[in-house]
Amino acid sequence: MGQDNIRAYRKPLNINIGIICFLVIMVYIVICSFMYFTSKHVVGYEVKAGSLSISNVYEGIALRDEIIVTSDYSGYVNYYAREGEKVGSGGVVCSVDETGQLQDLMNKEATDGIAVLSDSDISEIRNDIVDFSTSFDSRNFQSAYDFKYAIEGSVMKFSNNNLLQNLESLENTGSAGLINFCRSPESGIVIYSVDGYEDRDASDVNEDWFKKDSYDKTQLINNELVSAGDILYKLSDNENWSIIIPVERKRAEELLAEEYVKVRFLKNRNESWGRVQLLEGTDGNTYVQLFFTNSMISFATDRFIDVELITDVESGLKVPNSSIITKEFFLIPEDYVTKGGNNNSDVVLREVYAEDGSTSVETVPITIYSLNNGEYYIDDDVLRIGDRILKPDSLSDYTISKVAELTGVYNINKGYADFKQIQVLNQNDEYSIIKSNTDYGLVAYDYIALDANSVETDEFIYD
Questions:
Q1: DSSP secondary structure string for all residues of 168-227
Q2: Distances (CA, A) of 156 to 44, 259, 428
Q3: pTM metric for this prediction
Q4: Which residues of 73-99 are buried (b: 16+ CB within 10 A; e: fewer)?
Q5: pLDDT in tens, 348-391
Q6: For residues 81 and 160, what is the distance between their CA atoms, to the nearest angstrom?
Q7: What is the mean pLDDT of residues 244-251?
Q8: Which residues have a Cβ under 8 Å from the Cβ of 397 and sit 6 or more positions away?
Q9: Can you tell me the distance from the alpha carbon of 274 to that of 435, in angstroms, rounded to the nearest whole number?
Q10: Confidence category of residue 173, pLDDT binned at 50, 70, 90
Q11: Rounded to an integer, what distance in angstroms lies between the CA atom of residue 262 and that of residue 272?
């Protein structure tokens, strides 16, 4: 075979399907990445049913009918009734020892073992300690001093009662005549402290009443020296009392509309119904006074009381406040909208003027966003101020001139921003509760633009 018949071998073209698929995928990824980084991104929010968490906890001031009882004698006072308990009319509350010999006698009898606390007395004090330890708030350390005085008063009361049960012994020593017993002028709850709020009138309320740094409470201590005319104790003679709380005007009017509101006392978690009355403070602020006919004895020693108002929670569709926007629309009478076009959709009949002065009528598709008082809210994307529309089957016409605002959100279910009207029922700093299943509104599980200012009406949304 000659050399002229030798030809170069051509390698056949082998198409690798794997490489082609890889290149196609790479091109797709590059295109998608380019579109992602160059297009506007709208974050969606799924609408769900819910309710708002509204703070209903307030610190209020308790006002009661409080009678201040003063001493007719000078000497050392000794208390027998326990603070916060009810005494009957004529019952012994305390005594005033003009010579001081009673205290010496009490100390002697305590040393001799006569004034010994019973098991029931110790159990009662133990329960008081447990109650205080579970409810103590370090932010209100003053309560520790109140508890100290209360325990001291309880121990002294038990001790003094033991002494009073041995009146024959006192008479034999000749000491009984030295004691001036102070009896309650009427039945009521005994309190051994004063703070200047006893004679205050609710109509004079102002923000200074609530300043704890200037609050001054004077504890009336057992075995202290008193003079004639000094305060011995005070008496709350009925269960009618009230709590005043500072509130915003809108909230006060909402509570007033309910007339009665359920109140939870945070001190013991008990609940009661309070009658609502609106107060205008001397400082121009708004206050609410809640009236009660029970539970006073549980708070007889408290001036500042933390309460929670248990009101009906408004429920509906929950949306972020950032998704809410206000938009302006044209108003046209309901009678000027009819059905037409290929899809038998909502349309208006607009009068059109040609260059030669002739007129004609064109059918203009519209989108209705709301109906109120016989007027439709129409977007301004197809109509303009001054356009004249005709009433179907009539010679009447209407010139578009009225505008009004609607509050709503942008629905993005269909891939573009579609404005939907909403009715806000309640609102806090982050979320709003809106009415569900309204005409032209939202339903549960709709997707809306989280930031309403990031989109415009009918703008296409890219995920």
A1: HHHHHHT-GGGEEEEE-SSSEEEE-EE-S-TT--GGG--GGGG-GGG---EE--TT-EE-
A2: 69, 45, 52
A3: 0.57
A4: bebbbbbbbbbbebbeeeebbbbbbee
A5: 888 888 877 788 888 888 888 888 888 999 887 788 888 888 98
A6: 9
A7: 91
A8: 351, 388, 389, 390, 391
A9: 30
A10: low
A11: 6
Would you say 182 and 69 are in contact if contact means Cβ atoms under 8 Å apart? Answer: yes
Please provide the distance, in angstroms rounded to a whole number, between the alpha carbons at the two ends of the chain. 70
Q: Which pair of tokens denotes residue 47?
A: 């609408």
- DSSP 8-state assignment for residue 67: E
Neighbours of 261 (CB within 10 A): 20
Q: Which amino acid is at 126?
A: R
Mind listing the pLDDT tens digit for each residue in 4-23?
666 665 666 566 677 778 78
The residue assigned the tokens 């001139």 is 401
Q: Which residues of 174-208 are buried (b: 16+ CB within 10 A; e: fewer)?
A: ebeebbbebebeeebbbbbbbeeebeeebeebeee
* Token pair 């089957």: residue: 393
Backbone angles phi, psi at 134, to 5 degrees: -80, -25
Q: CA–CA separation, 150 vs 146, rounded Å?
A: 6
Q: Give mean pLDDT, residues 131-153.
A: 65
In the block, which residue shows the tokens 């008496």? 235
Res. 79 pLDDT band, cuts 50 70 90: confident
For residue 455, count CB atoms less than 10 angstroms from its CB and return exposed for 0-12, middle for 13-18, buried for 19 or more.
buried
CA 259 → CA 271, 272, 276, 289, distances in Å?
Answer: 17, 14, 5, 11
